[in-house]
Amino acid sequence: MSSVGGGQLDLRALELANEIYGIVAKKDGNGNVEGQATVVGLHVDDTQLVNLHGDVTCLQVSGNQAWIGVTVTQSTAAPGPYSVGGSFWFRVQDNGEGENAAADRISNLNPNGGAARCNEMRAGLPLAWEIIGNVQVR
Fold first, then answer.
1. Distance of alpha carbon 118 from alpha carbon 116, whole angstroms
2. Which of 7, 49, 69, 71 could form a disulfide with 89 if both were Cys (CB 3.0 to 4.6 A apart)?
3. ∠16-19-22 over CA atoms, to 5°?
C-alpha cells in the first residue's frame, strides 16, 4: 500500500498564502510503515505560518482514500502539537488521473494522536480542500 504525491492548496479566496504538501508513505506486507511528509506554510492560527517535516508512522488505505499519521522531526512552530516530537494525522483522496478527473482532496491536519488516530480511519474527517497537484493512493 502507498500514498505518494503532493501539491498545494489555493487559499487566495481566504486571503491566505498557499500551503504546499508533499507525501511519500508506504506500508509493506508485514505492516511496516515508512515515509516522509512535508508541509510548507501551514496556517496554524492568525499569527503563525509553520513549515513541517516528519516521519510517516501510520498508513491505512481503503479504496481511493488514505489516512496518514506523522511524527514531526523538523518544525518552525512554537511549542505545541506541531513542534518537534509532536504528531498529526490527515486523510487524502485520489480521484484519478487526467483532465477529466475530479481534483484530489485532503483534510485539515489534525494535531495529536498521529498513528493512533490514523489507525482509526475516521470517515467523518472532512476532505475539506482540493489539491492543485496529484496524490496517488494504492
1. 5
2. 69
3. 175
* Other beta carbons within 10 Å of 102: 9
- Tell me the CA distances in angstroms from 61 to 1, 3, 48, 70, 95, one per residue in order: 7, 8, 32, 15, 14
Task: Return the ∠ at Cα 63 (arms to 28 and 44), rounded to 5°.
Answer: 85
CA dihedral in degrees (107, 5, 100, 126; nearest 10)?
Answer: -10
> What residues are paired with 40 via a beta bridge?
20
**Cα–Cα nearest to 95, from 58, 59, 131, 56:** 131
The low-confidence residues of the chain, meaning pLDDT below 50, are none
pLDDT in tens, 24-44: 999 999 999 999 999 999 888
C-beta of residue 91 within 8 angstroms of C-beta of residue 66: yes
